[in-house]
Write a structure and sequence with these properties.
Elements: E1 35-40, E2 66-68, E3 74-76, E4 79-84, E5 90-95, H1 109-120, H2 138-142, E6 153-157, E7 160-164, H3 172-175, H4 186-192, E8 209-212, E9 220-225, E10 239-244, H5 248-256, E11 262-264, H6 267-273, E12 279-292, H7 299-305, H8 308-316, H9 320-328, H10 353-356, H11 367-381, E13 386-393, H12 399-413, E14 417-424, H13 426-434, E15 440-446, H14 453-456, H15 473-483, H16 490-507, E16 510-522, E17 526-527, E18 530-531, E19 538-539, E20 544-545
Helix pairs in contact: 8-11, 15-16
InterPro entries: Peptide/Ni-bd, SBP_5, SBP_5_CS, SBP_5_dom
Main location: membrane
Protein name: Peptide ABC transporter substrate-binding protein
Length: 546
């Protein structure tokens, strides 16, 4: 899950993403109006499924063969039956008879075929093409060596979709619950042409809600119940209003004045409201980390960040226990590496992947060793001082606090280090990170599904989401082995991934800071919201106002 500045969440922060106030509170004499009012930390940058940069909320308006249910379990979606071949490489889905688009059009097998091909077309510029890896011809298409039309999906008839895989994919079922793989309506896209997805009315929806009042810009929009949805009878909410709130104090004020049903809390606010009956914590499989720019435009800075001793010194200078418990205080935890804890367990032993990826003296606080590494790095570089910038997007309420803490800790422990903070709007951070315009970047990644590969595919040399352009042949080979040669052997694949994660830890090509936990005040009459730590985190299909 990319950073939540896109149509979804990404830093958990579009985690609750999206919302404006209407009236919707119940009274003792009136029936609740079933209007939910939510805060968003950033504007929606797109509603085009193929171009989204995050999918945390997307499952509410777009649905695939499955959807993500409670506790990360796969739940029924647009498909009512599925057959899997003995070799697990052919999946056949039957689309429901009553599956319809929000405009009343029937959802067909060809809508899925068209969707995948459109997403993989280079001119679409999808951020998530790598998710199609392992599907027949997927890797060739991603590499630009095959036509998108050759992707392994076909329509056997109007309601039957057949998907061919290159090899078994351990997480394929849960992958098919991801909105990226949902259908797109070719007729509607052709009808609207360049207007398609530029406003909410130039779009059709396959999920329990549809978007209204989105103009391409603006700080408010709504999800309203989709009365064409196949399972509409279980959808109780009539509307979800979203309002962009970038200041936690503003959000709290709106909540207290009964104009919002949720308020995301800052670190200081958490301390004041932790014992409130409305206090809620929502964990995420999201690791906030430092990205180093290995292709920095400044040659001297590029040399500095390419030095392993310098990166290790930075990692060892950060007291993550102090950061999570005292500075943040919101339930966030210390990571053991690049992959989040609680995401996946060893198929043989049941042990958490996070425990197995740990490497001594990587995420621990060791200022004396940090000083040694720093001195060694400076000597290798032939310099005495280091001046770097750290960029952070303001879509995360903790960003300013964390960057200030990092500046203090690093300048204190590493003599000659001068760190300049650049806190910028979320859209600016997104643009600059994708173009490689940064030294250090306070970034975050959240799992798209419950498998370590969701994290580990990001640092691969060829991945467009590898913004810092770190490249390591040994790492690439381990991930390729996990995804190909060992794809059908659960334990061998697991060990490939463990070794890859350890390599990231040892080299500190990415420096993990903390695993996110986000705190909210949530009205006690809001019920039925499904929250998951990975993938489409927020589902309002069963939500209601009591």
């Amino acid at each position: 899950m990319k950073k939540w500045t896109g149509f979804g969440l990404v830093a958990a922060v579009i985690a609750m993403s999206l919302g404006l106030a209407a009236c919707g509170q119940s009274t003792s004499a009136a029936k609740p109006s079933q209007v939910l009012r939510l805060p968003a930390t950033a504007q929606l940058d797109t509603i085009d499924l193929a171009k989204a940069t995050g999918y945390g909320q997307t499952g509410n308006v777009f649905e695939s063969f499955y959807r993500l249910g409670k506790d990360g379990k796969v739940a029924p979606g647009l498909a009512d039956t599925v057959k899997v071949s003995k070799d697990k490489k052919t999946w056949t889905f039957h689309i429901r008879d009553n599956a319809k688009w929000s405009n009343g059009d029937k959802i067909t097998a060809q809508d899925f075929v068209y969707s995948w091909r459109r997403t993989l077309t280079p001119s679409t510029k999808s951020s998530y093409m790598n998710m199609f890896s392992g599907i027949k011809n997927g890797d060739k298409i991603i590499a630009g060596k095959a036509n998108p039309d050759s992707i392994g999906i076909s329509a056997k008839n109007k309601q039957t979709v057949v998907i061919q895989l290159e090899k078994p994919i351990a997480y394929f079922k849960i992958l098919m619950a991801y909105p990226l793989f949902a259908p797109q309506n070719e007729k509607v896209i052709n009808k609207y042409g360049k207007k398609y997805a530029t406003k909410s009315q130039y779009m059709v929806y396959s999920g329990p809600f549809k978007i209204t009042n989105w103009t391409g810009t603006g700080n408010t929009w709504s999800f309203v119940k989709n009365n064409q949805y196949w399972d509409k009878k279980v959808v109780k909410l009539h509307r979800i209003n979203y309002q962009v709130v970038t200041n936690p104090q503003t959000g709290l004020s709106l909540y207290q004045n009964k104009k919002l049903d949720f308020a995301q809390l800052s670190n200081e606010q958490v301390k004041n409201y932790k014992n409130n009956s409305a206090f809620q914590e929502y964990p995420y499989s999201i690791v906030i980390h430092l990205k180093y720019n290995f292709q920095d435009a400044n040659k001297e800075k590029r040399r500095i960040m390419s030095n392993q001793n310098i990166r290790q010194a930075i990692a060892l200078s950060i007291n993550r226990s102090q950061l999570t418990k005292k500075v943040l205080g919101d339930g966030s935890v210390t990571p053991t590496g690049f992959v989040a804890s609680g995401l996946a367990r060893d198929p043989k032993t049941g042990e958490d992947f996070a425990k197995q990826q740990a490497v001594k003296n990587t995420t621990a606080y060791n200022p004396s060793l940090a000083k040694q590494k720093w001195a060694a790095g400076l000597k290798e570089l032939g310099i005495k001082k280091v001046n770097l910038n750290i960029m952070a997007g303001n879509d995360d309420v903790a960003a300013s606090t964390v960057t200030q803490y990092l500046k203090s800790a690093l300048e204190k422990n590493l003599q000659g280090f001068d760190l300049t903070i650049q806190n910028v709007p979320a859209s600016v951070a997104q643009s600059r990170s994708t173009s490689g315009d940064f030294d250090l970047y306070l970034s975050h990644w959240g799992a798209d599904f419950n498998d370590p590969i969701s994290f580990l595919q990001i640092p691969v040399s060829s991945n467009s989401l590898n913004y810092g352009k770190w490249s390591n042949k040994a790492y690439d080979k381990l991930i390729a082995k996990a995804q190909n040669q060992d794809a059908g052997n659960d334990e061998a694949r697991w060990q490939d991934m463990v070794q890859a994660a350890k390599l990231i830890n040892k080299t500190q090509s990415f420096t993990p800071l903390y695993q996110a936990n986000y705190a909210y005040l949530q009205r006690t009459d809001v019920k039925g919201i499904i929250h998951n730590t990975a993938g489409t985190q927020w589902s309002y299909k069963y939500a209601y106002i009591k």
